[in-house]
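Weekend entry, working from home. Most of the wet-lab plans are on hold until the incubator is repaired, so I used the time to fold the two sequences that have been sitting in the queue since the last round of cloning. Logging both here for the record. First:
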Amino acid sequence: MKELIILIPHYNNIEGLYSSIRSIEESFKIDLMVVDDGSKIKPSIIDLKKNYNQGEIIFEALPVNQGIESVLNYGLKKIVDLNYKYIGRLDCGDLCHKNKFLIQLNYLSQNQDIMLLGTQVNFIGSENKKILYKSNLPTTYQKIKKEFYVNCVIIHPTVVFRTQILNTTGFYPTEYKAAEDYAFFFKILKKYKVENLNEVLVDVIFDENGISFKSRKTQIKSKIKIIKDNFYIGFCPIYGILRNSILLYMPHSLLILIKKNFFKK
């Protein structure tokens, strides 16, 4: 069985893709699977290999744009057939700290009951590349499970998980647009123990013009639906629905201002 492969979806962000794979600095072999979602300008396998030499690169190109949920599921299905023990995630533009994956694999090896492991992150300005604020995510399974009804407290491009969990959880749900990770992690939390390392191992680009911001309302509506679909009578689910309902109508500029001032490094 092979050890680890990193799944990276790509859509019209070649420079971000190259910077992300160049940031992977480890002492062991790590393979990559890059899935292009019908980009106008696609990366070439030759250029990918020029920017990454720490393992094998598998490049898949979808003929037309299908959306992030379909791209991730396409990649996962391919990876399952390749027999890797662990799957990691990384998004184009986000940067790994040195030995990120070694630290996570060592922790997972020492804690066999943990099936998915995330980390803390620095949120970096897209223009000045300076740290805007640092995440303060819960680290224990019980706290993550509780707070997940309020917000997605696992950051997608930080995770490494055991491939075997897909046998019972299945792949990313496709009915929750722009919140496929939130729905996917909810499925995992119901069956398996997950944690976050209390260590910053990824720099996430905070791009106010990015896709995640442009689809913000769609994402919040999907999050509310996910909470309702996993609802029980309790404080956290009720608070989560109320909180996200407020965020749905809160000006985006105000939300960014709050984050920058209350979550400074």
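Second, folded right after the first finished:
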Amino acid sequence: MTLYSVIKKDHEYWLVDQIKHSEVPNERYMQELAVLLSEWHENQCKYLSLLMDQENETWLLGQGFHKVSSIVEYACSLDGDFEAEADIDIESLAESDVDDEDFAKLYERCKSGSANKNNLFTMKQVMESLENELGYNWRSNCHIFNKDGQPIGMSIPVIENGTEDEGRLFYFGVIPEMRQKGFGTIFHRLSLGLLKNMHAASYVGSTDENNVHMIHIFERNGCNLRDEKGIYRINQE
């Protein structure tokens, strides 16, 4: 049984996410985390970022972690209908005339001013991670939302590693000048439709506990609070 999802980039970072199973005792999670932490120290990566239950916070801080933030997870079934918007055109990066450089610029615009505190990566690292984590066909996962022929948002729906039908959003966002107009809720709903088309049966999304705007988007689109976790980080000395 897999207790942690681990994404590694040699000599740069490890991203570790606790996979919660109700039948697994906390002690077993801590034992496996201790092994992972030892391996990370030996690997000499710059840092490890951990997403985990906050009940273990005292132990984590004692090991040299510092707390970045707390996140909330929301989930919903994808058995409903997610109708397209008549004035929004959706195209995948693989099928569009947009090149990787312009897509990166759109991504960066959408990320600007984010209320989430766990902004670990530069845009160069983000673009590298797309291929590393999604594979050679990553451009087919990247979608651009156009209105009146202009890109105003984007979304990257994926199936969670280690699952067959749990949908996630690697990222989705709206350009700054189009915010506060309801497009966040629309693009999130359209993204759920994209996940359903990828044969996802459910969706799980997360955001910083203080990102009230994103929490409202989750709730408007039928998602319910599933869990809360802490984000912790440790650097090599």
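Plan for Monday: verify the second prediction. The chain has a mean pLDDT of 91.
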